[in-house]
Each structure stands twice: as C-alpha cells, then as structure tokens.
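Q: Given only this backbone (405 positions), what sequence would you predict?
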C-alpha cells in the first residue's frame, strides 16, 4: 500500500474588509492485494491506483458590521485505475460467486461546484447563516443543489440557542463502481440534517454544549449479499444527543469531554424492515487533555470508550449437497464487545526565523487492549462452527514531523 499528499495555501488580503483563500492539493493512493491458498496465492486480488487533484478558492467580505458574505468555487479531477479478479467461491453462508475479472479504467472524471453564504447579525443577540451549495459530478452525471440554514440566538449573555437544517450529498466512489459494471449507474446518497442545541459559555476559554440531531437518509448505498452490485434502494435515519465540554488553551491546560448517545437504523428497500446499521454505536465517550510543559514541549492524552457495534451472528449450520454452511441469525442482531483505549502523544517544537518544525511521538493503545474489529465464522466437516476474531491495533508507536511556514 502506498500514499502521498501535498498541498499549498495562499491567502490574499485585498482590503480591510475582505480576503481570499486559495488551496491546491494532490493526493494519491494505491494498493495491491492477493488472496489464495497454498497452491495458488492469487485466486482473489485487486490492484487499485487513485489520484486526485483539488483546487478551491474562497472569498470572504464584510459588507457591513451586520452582514458578511462568503462565496467560493471548487474543482477536483479524479483519475482511477482498478483491476480486480475473483476466483469461483461458495461462502460459508452458501452464496455462490462465479469467477470474474473486472478491468475498470474510466477516463478522468471531475467534480466541480460552488457555494454562496451570507451571515446576518441584526443585533448582538441574533445571527442567521444561510447558503446554497451546488456541485456537478461528471461520473454520475448529477447536478445537486444543497440548501443550508443556521440560527444562533443569545437567550442570555452566556446561554445560546443554536439550530441548523441542511441537505448533504455523498457521491459514490470509483472503488464502489469498480466492483461490478452495473455500479456505474449509482447515484449520490442524501442526508437531511436537523439539529437543535444549547451552548453555555462559562468563560471565554470554556464552553459546554448539548445537541439533539435527526438525520433522515435516502438513496443510501446497498450492496447485494449474492452479487457485487450496489444500488440506491436504501434509506434510514440517525438520531441522538451529544454532550460536549471544551477547555481551550488557558495557561498551560487544554481539554475536552464528549459523550454521545445515538441510534442509527437502515433498511434495504421500501418494503423491508429496519435493522441496526453496522456503525450503530449507542454510547461513545471521549476524554482528551493536553498540557504545555514549556514553550517547546507538550504532552497530551486521549481516552475513548464505546459500546460494541452490531454484526450478524451465526446461529447454526445446514447441510447442502454434502457441504456444511453457516445459518445466519437476524441481520445485525448481535453486538461486538465494548471497545476502549488510551493514546498518549508528546510534541517538541523547534522555532526558526520564518517557520516552525514540530516532531511528535504517538503511542496508541497504551495498555494494549484487544478491541474486536470483526468476527469470521467457519464450519468443519462435522458441522461444528468456529469463530475467529480480528482485532484493532495493539500497542503502536508512531513518529512524525510537521512544518508550518
């Protein structure tokens, strides 16, 4: 697996009331994988290379003390090569996949669009943000317009009411399209966000917020259990409540605490039942803190705890044509174990005339917790089921550097 990324920002202050920010970046990713047996190590595999060039320019102008205008344009070119091959296979659940080879080398596609946004502050207690975002995706030949609006109202000097509403679209990836030629007919999925909350300012450095949200989803991507085709027949919702408290850098300490309770449901067709989405994580708790030891040294930690996500269990076996297969239970009717881990980070900053260099050392999963990612099931010749667990990163050290000019 390989990857690269490079970017450049240019900020131009054209008046006391306005500025322009332009960003250009390139990302490239690629991987090769082979899967087989002792006789043939490449029964299944893929070779994927993706290259994206991004260009974005935004202009912000303070029309008056009460009105701010913002607008921008963006474009992205996408160049992808996908070569995938599958050997004939019958899964442990009895699904049959014939051998197939897919070469997916689309011409360079692009995504382009723009946005307009205005912020109106008729008084010190009230602000309204309204905007429109439009984008065109060449690969699916779609043009989408996304209205968005938000409102903030100071109930008191320290208590703020916040609300927002908006449309958000997710375009299909070229990797999804490469799984089957029919997947080139996919469309973008849509989410309609409704959010309301309260924010309390303890001090300029410390705030607490609580939010209720509802996200209605349609045209979501549904992958067939028996083929590699993906359609837009899915729908569902996510709803929940989020509590967040933040202490910005004050003296030497910075920190945050977040807790979310959420429910996420999906269904694979209009007449099909709802089920727990595979990323339906009901309880999620995160505690992060950082301490500035000196002007050049910082230390930080992050602790995460979350309840397990759902999976489809194996409830038995069935004998078909002298072969044993796994019998599935209800879709996503079981839960993985809860997960938790502690990460620690140390930063050392070096200051030069016109730039700074930061070296950091990360230590993930300090106490080496075994967090289950997924289970796989197998059946032996006697019809006995075995369950194997795959785990997230164990204790993992990371060293890196970053530069700021």
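A: Predicted residues:
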């Amino acid at each position: 697996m390989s990857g690269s990324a490079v970017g450049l920002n240019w900020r131009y202050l054209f008046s006391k009331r306005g500025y322009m920010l332009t960003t250009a970046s390139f990302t490239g990713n690629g991987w090769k994988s082979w899967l087989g047996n002792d006789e043939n190590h490449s029964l299944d595999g893929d070779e994927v290379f993706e290259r994206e060039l991004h260009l974005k320019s935004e202009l912000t102008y303070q029309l008056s003390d009460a009105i701010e205008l913002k607008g921008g344009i963006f474009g992205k070119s996408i160049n992808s090569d996908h070569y995938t091959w599958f050997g004939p296979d019958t899964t442990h659940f009895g699904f049959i996949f014939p051998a197939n080879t897919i070469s997916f080398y689309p011409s360079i596609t692009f995504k382009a669009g723009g946005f307009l946004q205005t912020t109106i502050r008729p008084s010190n207690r009230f602000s309204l943000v309204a905007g429109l975002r439009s984008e065109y995706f060449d690969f699916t030949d779609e043009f989408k317009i996304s209205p968005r609006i938000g409102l903030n109202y100071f109930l008191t000097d320290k208590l703020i009411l916040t609300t927002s509403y908006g449309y958000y679209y997710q375009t299909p990836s070229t990797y999804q399209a490469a799984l089957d030629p029919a997947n080139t007919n996919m469309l973008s999925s849509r989410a309609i966000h409704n959010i309301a909350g309260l924010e309390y300012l303890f001090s300029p450095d410390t705030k607490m917020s609580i939010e209720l949200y509802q996200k209605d989803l349609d045209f979501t991507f549904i992958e067939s259990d028996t083929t590699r085709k993906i359609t837009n027949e899915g729908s569902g919702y996510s709803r929940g409540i989020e509590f967040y408290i933040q202490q910005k850098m004050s003296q030497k300490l910075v920190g945050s605490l977040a807790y979310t309770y959420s429910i996420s449901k999906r269904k694979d067709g209009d007449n099909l039942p709802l089920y727990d989405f595979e990323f339906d994580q009901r309880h999620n708790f995160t505690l992060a803190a950082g301490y500035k030891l000196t002007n050049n040294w910082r230390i930080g930690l992050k602790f995460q705890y979350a309840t397990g996500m759902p999976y489809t269990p194996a409830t038995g076996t069935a004998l078909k044509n002298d072969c044993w297969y796994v019998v599935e239970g209800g879709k996503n009717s079981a839960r993985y174990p809860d997960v938790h881990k502690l990460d620690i980070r140390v930063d050392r900053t070096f200051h030069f005339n016109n730039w700074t260099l930061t070296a950091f050392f990360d230590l993930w999963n300090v106490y080496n917790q075994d967090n289950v990612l997924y289970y796989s099931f197998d059946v032996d010749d006697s019809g006995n089921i075995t369950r194997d667990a795959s785990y997230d990163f164990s204790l993992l050290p990371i060293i890196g550097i970053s530069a700021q000019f």
